[in-house]
Amino acid sequence: GKSSSETSSPPSLSVHLDDSDTVVAGSSVKGHIVIECIDLDELKSLQIQVQGEERVASRHSSFSASNLFLLLSPPIQFNPKLQEGTNLFTFEAEMPANLCPSSLRKQSVNGRTGFIEYSLIALAETSTRQLESKKISFDVLEVFASRLHPVSCEDSLQGRIGGNATATASIHLSQQAFAIGDSPDITLKILSNKDVPHVTLSLVKTVQLKEGENTFQNTQQVARSVHPIKHAANST
């Protein structure tokens, strides 16, 4: 027979993704829920929640805000009789194409640089107790039509380049928009009568928060790289 420690063990609840942990907006996230039981039990309710949370923050200002912008709970078909051992239930939830911005993972422990995060959590109620699974995260990628079209921008830069000189720089990108995981191709053309020893490229993001009639905005540097120039003046 079973010992008292075995019979007193509660059921366990967990949620799992079936495919990749990256989903394209407009498609579905698929997975399954597992309930492990020591004894026979009765399942009264079973729910999966798909959550999207965003936080806009600035390290240089005193504002921060978080928002649960997405909450889906697709129906799940289940047999109320839980068997001893493993009980498995499948689910599928469509991620709305117009409501799901691309994921932005937390860049610090406290998330002070802002983030966009998607997660799954399962909730269940049996005849003896209520269960809640651990939350698991997944990524969402937006679909950008503008990613198919090249874009360029030009600007005149005034500065000291081996003495007083004026340089004109033009930047050309292979596409207009990028998603998480993309590697931008950048072409920089510099026109100057002086040699330019190196170029520094910075990737920045603009953080904006609106509270009533007030708008707070701050620009933050995300990445920075220095590229030596091997050629003389007027080069690409």
Automatic annotation (TrEMBL):
Domain of life according to the entry: Eukaryota
Residue ranges of every copy of the Arrestin-like N-terminal domain listed in the record: 79-143
A Pfam family per the record: Arrestin_N
Listed InterPro entries: Arrestin-like_C, Arrestin-like_N
Secretion signal, residue range per the UniProt entry: none
Coiled-coil segments: none
Protein name: Arrestin-like N-terminal domain-containing protein
Phylogenetic classification of the source organism: Eukaryota, Amoebozoa, Discosea, Flabellinia, Vannellidae
